[in-house]
Amino acid sequence: MQIEYVSRIDGTKALPFIIDAYTSLRKSGHIDELSCPVTGREEAFYLCNRGKVVAVLSFYRDDDSFVVNMGFVLPRYRKQGLYRMLWERLVAEARKRKLRCILGYHAPENSDILGFNNSLGRKVKYICSEYVV
I need a surface site. Which of 34, 57, 61, 93 has the fewest CB within 10 A? Predict the structure, then answer.
């Protein structure tokens, strides 16, 4: 699988996937609509398998940082390093743009992302994870 990038997700094949992912994450209680609205103006890295989006990492720029809006991998594609691939691409993009850090906001009870953030060396500050570039 090759990582694809879009500068705006509006009107791309990634947008329906992101909306479905948000619905799933909202139902699980990991995010709410107010904290992570889908605007369609985010940038995104995503992975496709046979033309179907299977993983996405959407983000936007805020001053000297990227803010991760949402990361999601379809359940059957998890534990294969796909999110890590997207994360590494995001870090490379942040360095290329000379940004200070990458922030991610999440529910305090989201143990999946807390464990993953820890494995990436991200500092967890309440419900905000920071990765210094």
Answer: 34
